[in-house]
């Protein structure tokens, strides 16, 4: 992999199952690792030849990789113990309810990634002193997983 540091939020951030206008996509391999791939021929930017180093002007280049072993440990320590909870707020910001869901193990989570319910969200942009990346799901999706309310 090349060591390139560039903004990676908004439209350039890769998504599962489709190559974006920047030539990027997310792919889950047979071992259930996640790869961010770049395809120079699919990059629609007019000046891509100037932006992309010659060494990266190739097809199917892995530009980032999340290994199952790393994600699985973190995910299952957080979500596969006794389940998960979420605090709900009213329109004024007051907490009104706690909702709970079943434990989530890696096999379930990676399927949610493959289906697009869990997605990559990057805060890697110029001017951000603390660049980050995370995996998220919409509130609508989490609401579908609620099994009890208090």
Question: What is the compact description of this entry?
Answer:
The chain has 150 residues and is of the alpha+beta class. 21% of the residues lie in helices and 33% in strands. It has one domain (22-149).
Describe the structure.
- There is one protein chain.
- The protein has a 3-stranded antiparallel β-sheet. A 3-stranded antiparallel β-sheet has the order 4-5-8.
- It has one domain (22-149).
- 21% of the residues lie in helices and 33% in strands.
- The protein has helices at 48-51, 68-79, 106-115, 139-144; strands spanning 22-28, 34-43, 61-66, 84-89, 95-101, 118-122, 133-137, 146-149.
- The chain has 4 helices and 8 strands.
- The chain has 150 residues and is of the alpha+beta class.
């Amino acid at each position: 992999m090349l060591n390139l540091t560039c903004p990676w939020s908004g439209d350039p951030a890769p998504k599962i199952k489709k190559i974006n206008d920047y030539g990027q996509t997310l792919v889950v391999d047979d071992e259930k690792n996640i790869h961010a791939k770049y395809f120079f021929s699919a990059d629609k930017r007019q000046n891509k030849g100037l932006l992309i180093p010659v060494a990266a002007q190739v097809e199917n280049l892995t530009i980032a990789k999340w290994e199952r072993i790393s994600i699985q440990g973190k995910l299952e320590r957080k979500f596969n113990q006794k389940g998960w909870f979420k605090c709900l707020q009213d329109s004024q910001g007051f907490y009104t309810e706690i909702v709970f869901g079943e434990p989530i193990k890696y096999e379930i989570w990676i399927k949610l990634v493959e289906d697009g319910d869990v997605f990559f969200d990057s805060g890697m942009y110029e001017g951000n002193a603390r660049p980050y990346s995370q995996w998220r799901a919409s509130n609508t999706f989490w609401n579908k997983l609620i099994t009890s309310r208090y």
